[in-house]
Amino acid sequence: MKTVLAIETSCDDTSVAVVTETGFVRHVISANQNKAHEIFGGIVPEIASRNHTHHLLPLVDVCLRHAGVTLAEIDGIAVTSCPGLIGSLMVGVVTAKSIALAAGKPFIGINHLEGHLLAPFLSDDDYQPPAEFSYPYIALAISGGHTSLYRIDAVGEYQVLGATIDDAAGEAFDKFGKMVGLGFPGGVRVDQHAGHGRSDRFVFVRAMMHEEHLNFSFSGMKASAQRVVQGLSATEKEELASDLTHKEPRHGVLADLCAGFQEAVVDVLLDRLARAVARHGVRRAVLTGGVSANSSLRARAAQWASAEGVQLVVPPIRYCTDNAAMIGFAGILRMGKGEFSEQTLGPRARANLGPAPLPENFPEWLRRAKS
């Protein structure tokens, strides 16, 4: 069975995986940089790229060892080449090209978003996707940098149905977390506190809820949140400060703020997803990307899908956040279609989904790589 080594360094997580052509993850290992960026309240690109250079090769060694394969037994290399932070992408792409050249293996650059869209098919010893799940399906990809709706008809056949016109949902969560004093990364911490709060205490804007198109907007929601926080009474501000000193989440102003903001974001996301499913008559849906780890989103999406008779697939959290396993699966599927990349491939900070280039010298190059 064919196997690829995959590398993901599009932002601040360094991830390496070994994946088979069936989507089985033999091993995936990742290193995050939350502590390195927390003091700055957000990701610093220069720090992110430097940390990738520190983590990547040791992770490759560990991943191969735990997967029980050698580099000689790998059939190809897949790497995220777009979109993302250019410095971070460069570390991954250069490393992947170097390994491919030294080992005589073919390699392919993969669009990070394509990895997220194909993540529902990943499996391992503890998780198997529904056996009957297949194309076509509607996918809502939500992360710190992207919030988009797609119709997926096959590998490489992606139709963009809607996207954010300004900020991404994950970025809005992180900025709100910083706004109320939770620091970075804010999204996870907002979710933790929201579970202890009342979502109806504070009112937040829900943009484009009544529009017929399928686009998103979260900048107004952030501005609304800023007004709510600034408009707290003196007593509420004192309670908020007290809430922030407690190690464990508890009910109070902080929890109510988080619950209300989270509810507003989830309302918008599910409204767009439901409209897309109804409009296209596709009864399969996917949540993917880092924000799909949000507990309220998962719970409410499951309720909606059950009520509407929609087959909903949400990968385990380890395959929703940035990970190399999804990149490996997208890569091995494209290699199976005869696609690969040349050594001239470079990273791109911005890129739309589309087929990987097929150079004219494909047969000769591939034969040389496998000889």
Which helices and strands, and how do they pair?
Layout: E1 3-8, E2 14-20, E3 25-31, H1 34-38, H2 45-67, E4 76-82, H3 86-103, E5 107-111, H4 112-118, E6 137-142, E7 147-154, E8 157-163, H5 169-179, H6 186-194, H7 219-230, H8 234-245, H9 253-280, E9 284-288, H10 295-308, E10 311-313, H11 317-320, H12 324-336, H13 362-370
Parallel strand pairs: 1-4, 4-5, 6-9, 9-10
Antiparallel strand pairs: 1-2, 2-3, 6-7, 7-8
Helix pairs in contact: 2-3, 4-12, 5-6, 5-7, 5-9, 6-9, 9-10
- CATH class bucket of the largest domain: Alpha Beta
Q: How many strands, which pairing sense, and closed or not: the largest β-sheet?
A: 5 strands, mixed
What structural category characterises the helix and strand content? alpha/beta
**How many E strands?**
10
Helix segment tally: 13
List keywords for this structure.
single chain; 371 residues; alpha/beta; Nucleotidyltransferase, domain 5; five-stranded mixed β-sheet; 13 helices; 10 strands; globular; disordered C terminus
